Amino acid sequence: ERLSDARRNGHEVLAVVRGSAINQDGASNGLTAPNGPSQQRVIRQALASARLSAADVDAVEAHGTGTTLGDPIEAQALLATYGQGRPEGRPLWLGAIKSNIGHTQAAAGVAGVIKMVMAMREGVLPEILHLDEPSREVDWSTGEVRPLTEATAWPETGRPRRAGISSFGLSGTNAHTIVEQAPELEEAVAPEAAGPEAAVVPWLVSGKSREALRAQADRLAAHLSARSGLGALDVGYSLASRSVFEHRAVVVGEDRDALLRGLESVAGRGIASGVVQGRAVPGGKTAFLFSGQGAQRLGMGRELYEAFPVFARALDEVCAYLDVLLDRPLKDVMFAAEGSSDAGLLDQTAFTQPALFAIEVALFRLLSAWGVAPDVLIGHSVGEIAAAHVAGVFSLEDACTLIAARGRLMQALPEGGAMVAIQASEEEVAASFAGREHEMGIAAVNGPSAVVIAGHTQAVREVADTWKAKGTKTRRLRVSHAFHSCLMDSMLDAFGQVVREVSFEPPTMALVSNVTGGLVTEAEACSPDYWVRHVREAVRFADGVRALKALGVTRFLEVGPDGVLTAIAQDSLAESAEDASATMLAPVLRKERPEAGALMTALAELHAHGATVNWEPIFAGRGANKVELPTYAFQRERFWPETSIAGGGRDSGSTAADSVDARFWEAVEREDLEALADALDVDGDATLGAVLPALS
Predict the structure, then answer these.
(1) Global pTM?
(2) CATH numbers and ranges of domains, the chain
(3) Are 443 and 479 in contact, with CB atoms under 8 Å apart?
(4) Residue 403 backbone class (left: φ over 0; alpha: ψ -120 to 50; beta: rest)
(5) Mind giving me the DSSP string for 432-492?
(6) Is 155 helix (H, G, I), strand (E, B) or coil?
(7) For the segment 51-60, what is each residue's pLDDT rounded down to a tens digit?
């Protein structure tokens, strides 16, 4: 990565590659023998690439295999290049990591790079192990090159530290790279920070087991507690770039102390807020649930609008289409001050439906920008139009036309009618108003025991009172009209005319229907009659949730201003005896909670349960930098058998036979012929023929 790009992206710079070169001259001296002139040429080419002289390099990490053939040839090449023209008292220091770890074959070159980068950071050049004196096969007097017979402080020269690294391959391929000490951060152009300084930050931790997860959190908490200078944003950015394992935790918070408490909670020490834990489920799918009427709230989306430009642009785009179709600018209604004249408009269905559509589309765009993508979509009533739009059924302009007409035509109906939620099954509720279907009907089946009836006020009240008298829980909904009932019939023709004027496309994503409770077919999605039925018929949300589960959905994310569908979907999922811990339900937003925090918690839930989240854009433009943090907390386990060496892999004290075996193998180890003969009960001078029966 270019240095300027690395700085701008907040990546930690370990060193700078100043120059490199590669050549090949295997034919000149055989496939397995090194060639000195070729090595000299590759070094000079690397210096030219770096625009440096030999005296500008302080040390070289040699290929240094330790052979009597290769080492003298390499040393002479270094003496002829780096050893010439150096200031007095500034020799080239020569090291070789193969004295520490042996020859790592294809990784030999990168091992040398790692060693020299670490040496630059520490300011110490490590010694060559097992070197008593420089090789006598080399005339060291021909240049200023000194093998590192002891650890040596890196020379202070008033310029960046530099080192060359050589790696020579079988068949005569030679490579030489020159690396330079990374510039101080303040010397580079710092990235511009965008957005509020005090913002929600996620800290991601994972492990291959529960124990590893706890150990990783514990190690990280101890490291950060001892280093108060490490900022929460930099820590979050650094953690988000790491590999992710099956067992996951995310700590969400605005300040360092709260995040540290969360880490300690993950480590098993106490309880803290803002902690999400889960396990990635292989093959699990993600469903987006788009909220319906009733989820709206004053000010919904305002905090996200101020904090996230992607959300703001998306909401502005939707409102640009809707504002020409509504009596008031939609954002003025959504963001109206409490108690103002505009505030009351949000609960009028002519504004409620467009407002829900607008915020749901903007939320979808924001999630998409962060790499969060659904496998399946479902909406509740009006939410299905938002789902259909993001699935590609309607263009944004046509969807806005549809949603504005739907709300306007419903608003124009005479007020009246009632909707009541009853805690009973669909069959039981339907039986309770048999013969009165012309007065009321089932408006929604939200769960196995969550049914909504709607229709004429008197008829609905009578049925509800009957249920209440039996001790069944009922609740009258605060609505202006009896939606999904016979009281909608008078607006269906007008709505049908609007629907027939828009264009349809087959859905590009799986979409579950409110009308049927199953997957929407291409014919249904592109049929005006389907969308008219959608206004009138019952919302079969419970069937839709069961369909999602049958499709393999394990992650349910509610895309809307509150957690309404999250709660009712739980009842349908609870019908199954399967492990509920493998299922995730979370809303993107919750009323009476800071929107950025709720959104980040939802992302944390998705991540913890195996969904893909691209965290990079979440930190982009906030001035985050990579910092050094503890490495993975490996759960080390010993597999060596705990047995006596003398026992030859057996427990020497278990039986008398084992005791004889132990004495036999001890005698073999000591090469004690007399004891061996005694153990076998044979004459020490016996022939092989006499010994073999004793051995058997």
Answers:
(1) 0.79
(2) 3-187 (3.40.47.10), 286-416+480-609 (3.40.366.10), 639-696 (no CATH)
(3) no
(4) alpha
(5) HTTT-TTTEEEEEEEETTEEEEEE-HHHHHHHHHHHHHTT--EEE---SB-TTSGGGHHHH
(6) coil
(7) 999 999 999 9
